[in-house]
Amino acid sequence: MWASFLEYATDWACAKLAEMVTYMKEVANLNGELSVDERNLLSVAYKNVVGTRRASWRIISSIEQKEESKGSDKHVTIIRDYRQKIETELEKVCQDVLDVLDESLIPKAESGESKVFYHKMKGDYHRYLAEFASGNKRKVAATAAHEAYKNATDVAQTELTPTHPIRLGLALNFSVFYYEILNSPDRACHLAKQAFDDAIAELDSLSEESYRDSTLIMQLLRDNLTLWTSSDGGEPEGAEAKEDKPVETEAAAAAPAAEEKTEEAPAEAPAPTES
Fold it and tell me: Where do the segments described as Disordered lie (predicted)?
């Protein structure tokens, strides 16, 4: 029943979003660099499509584990087939995004802001692939994600201020990558704390138009640090790190939406934040 419901809900939501993705992909392949609004629309379109599938994958994987513990072989087979279907769709969407980035968006990026935005986006979608991959495929995806995040960081540190929302969103997602994909809590905490401290030191110089987005991401960095350094030293079962999500404003690179607390993990699970 759960698999059928999730399949219906996922297919319906993704069908509604497909038109926007198709249109924005055509825009991305036109000559010239995308405007800030176009860039954010493209990011939002793909994030919504992949987010629906990531949410379904997390929920169905949780159900699969519970059914396996009950020894329900028939149910497990049905659920596993659906999980594999979601993984196939996720892989296709992520590869589609990565192709657009590599073939069009990154080569045309001229400003430091655009370069950071697209390399961060590339890191995000390789990370999404690593979330459900295993063996060598996971290793390849993780390596590619790390390289993209590192490229974005190199540009951000020289061309964007510590309070810039895109730079903060990059630090947020890069730290989630260290924590969830590389299982490196020390590096995750160090990166998140450094980004937070650097931004705090320059908070007085923060422009009015980006104040809301920057302080919101700073709060998410602090939320993750609190979760990752909790007194028991462990992560609550099913907890997911928070990440930032692009919004359709010129100022913002990544203001999180409520979906990040619900989509990234089943409702009963507490959640750290991503971008």
Answer: 228-275
E strands present in the chain = 242-243, 273-274
Successive 10-residue mean pLDDT values, the chain, 275 residues: 50 58 68 85 89 94 90 86 95 94 94 97 98 97 99 98 96 98 97 97 85 95 95 49 49 35 31 59
- pTM exceeds cut of 0.85: no
Rounded Cα distance between 192 and 41, Å, is 27
Question: What's the one-letter identity of residue 26?
Answer: E
Q: Are 156 and 194 in contact (CB under 8 A)?
A: no
- β-strand 273-274 against 242-243: which pairing, if any? parallel
Backbone angles phi, psi at 242, to 5 degrees: -80, 145
- SS3 for 78? helix
| Integer Cα distance of 6 and 8 in angstroms | 5
Count CA within 13 A, CB hemisphere, residue 136: 0
3-state secondary structure of 249: coil
Find all residues with CB under 8 Å of 202, minimum gap 6, and list them. Answer: 161, 162, 163
Domains along the chain with CATH numbers: 2-274 (1.20.190.20)
Residues 6+ positions from 201 with CB-CB distance below 8 Å = 162
Phi/psi region, residue 6 (left: phi>0; alpha: psi -120 to 50; beta: rest), is alpha
Contact 176, 274 (CB under 8 A): yes
List Cβ neighbours of 248 (8 Å cut-off, separation of 6 or more). Answer: 37, 40, 41, 44
